[in-house]
Amino acid sequence: MHSQAAASRLAFLRRLALGLALALTLASTSARAQGGGFFAGDVYVASDAVHVLGGTGASLQRIVPLSGAVTPLVGGFGQSGANCLAFDPYRQRLIWRAAVGSIFSTHVWLVDAAGTLTDTGLPTNTGWFAPTGDGRIYMSGGSNAFQWLDAANVTHTLLDATGLQPYKVDGVNGYDLRGMVYSSASNSLILTSPNTCGSAAPGDAIFRRVPLSADGTQVIGPADCASYDVMGPTTTLGIGPKGLALLPDGRVLLTTDNNGGLPNTVNLPRLLVLDPVAFTLAPFAFTGNYPTAHVVDAGVFTQSLGKALILDSFADDLRAWAEGEVGPGTEIPPVGGIVSSSGGSAEAVELAAIPASSCSGAWLPFGGVSFAGSEKERCHRPASQKPAPAHLFEVRR
Q1: How far is the C-alpha of 375 from the C-alpha of 131, rounded, in Å?
Q2: Could you tell me the pTM of the whole model?
Q3: pLDDT tens, 166-201?
Q4: FRET pair for 358, CA 20 to 30 Å: which of 181, 237, 238, 316?
Q5: By C-alpha distance, which of 231, 157, 225, 222 is closest to 191?
C-alpha cells in the first residue's frame, strides 16, 4: 500500500513538473520577440474605417489578445480593402497593400513590428496574400489571375494545368474571392467565395481546393468544392465568408457572418474548420446568444489564446471561441485604441495572426540573397555577418 501510494505521488509530481515546464516554455515563447520584432500570438488589424497617426485612410495596428491592448503602427491614406494583409513567416514580415504618404502612393509593403516599410514593387492590384513559409507568396491579381512571389522576390504567373495559360478558377474571369491560404498538407490553395459550386446552394459556406504541382508553378487539376449550410433549413438567407486562417495543426478556419434571418439567441456554426487533406467540413464553434452575433468582419486563430478571434464592427470589439465551444464566447474589449469606427458595420477589415517561430532577433528579408545553413542559423546570425538589404524584387511572366 505504501509503495503504491509513493508511486502515485511520484507520478503526480512528475506530471506537475512537466506541466510547469510546459507552462514556462509557452510563457517564454510568447514573451520573446522573434524575427522582425514580432511576438507569437499577437494579431494585426488592417482597417479602412480606423484612422491613426495622422492618416485619413487605411490603418495598421497591433492587438495583444491576452489584454486587448491596441497599438497604432502605420497610418495610411485611401482605402485598402479587405484582402490586403497577411503575415509571411519566411520573411518575418507583414505584407500589406496600402497608400502610405498620400492617396496616390498605394504599394504592397513588407512591414516589421516597428512599422518600418519596405516596398516590394508588387502590382497594386494583387491581394489575398497566401504565404507558404518557404519564401513563396501566392496572391490574386488582375482579372482574378493568380501570381506567386518566390524566395528570391521574383514574381511569376501561376499557370493552369496545361502549363500554357494563367490559372483562373473554373476558367472564368470575375471569380469572387473572399479568402485564400496555402495548405502544405495538401499542397494546395484553399479558397472561399460566395460563388456556388458543385451541389452547394446559394448562401452556403463555400471552400475550393486548388491542387498545385510539386514545384508550385502550376495547377494540376480542377478546383474541388465543399460546402456547408450554416443557417440551416429554417431560412433561405445565407452567410458571407469573412476570410480564412490556418490552425496550428494545418486545418483551415473559416469565419462567416449572416445578415439576420434568425434571432441572435440561436447558436450557429459561424466558425467552420476544414480538413484540407480529407476535404471535409465541420463546425469549429457555435456562436450566438449576444446582441451582435450576426456581425463578423474578420477572423483568425491566435496561439496566445488557443482560440479563434473575430472582430465585430457593430459592437466595436473582439470576441474569442475555443474549438467546440457553444455560445457567446469571450468578449475582449479593446484597450488603448479602437478596432472599428463607432456606429459602423460591415467594414473593410483584415486580421493577421503571428505564429510561433524559432527565428528570433531582427534579421531582414533580402531580395535575391540567401544565407548558408539552417533557418535557425540564418535567423540568429549576427547583423554584422549579414549582407546589406537589397531591393531586388523582379517580375517574370
Answers
A1: 16
A2: 0.84
A3: 999 998 887 899 999 999 999 999 999 999 999 998
A4: 181
A5: 225
For residue 116, give the DSSP letter.
-
The residues spanned by each domain of the chain are 48-395
DSSP collapsed to 3 states, 353-390: ECCCCCCECCCCCCCCCCCCCCHHHHHHCCHHHCCCCC
Are 75 and 35 spatial neighbours (Cβ–Cβ below 8 Å)? no
Q: Specify the CATH number for 48-395; select among 1.25.40.10, 3.30.43.10, 2.160.20.80, 2.120.10.30.
A: 2.120.10.30
pLDDT in tens, 88-134: 999 999 999 999 987 778 999 999 999 999 999 998 889 999 999 99
Residue whose C-alpha is closest to residue 26's, from 44, 41, 11, 43? 41
Q: Give me 113's grid cell.
A: 513590428
Give Cβ neighbours of residue 320 (< 8 Å, ≥ 6 apart): 65, 302, 305, 307, 308, 309, 310, 329, 330, 332
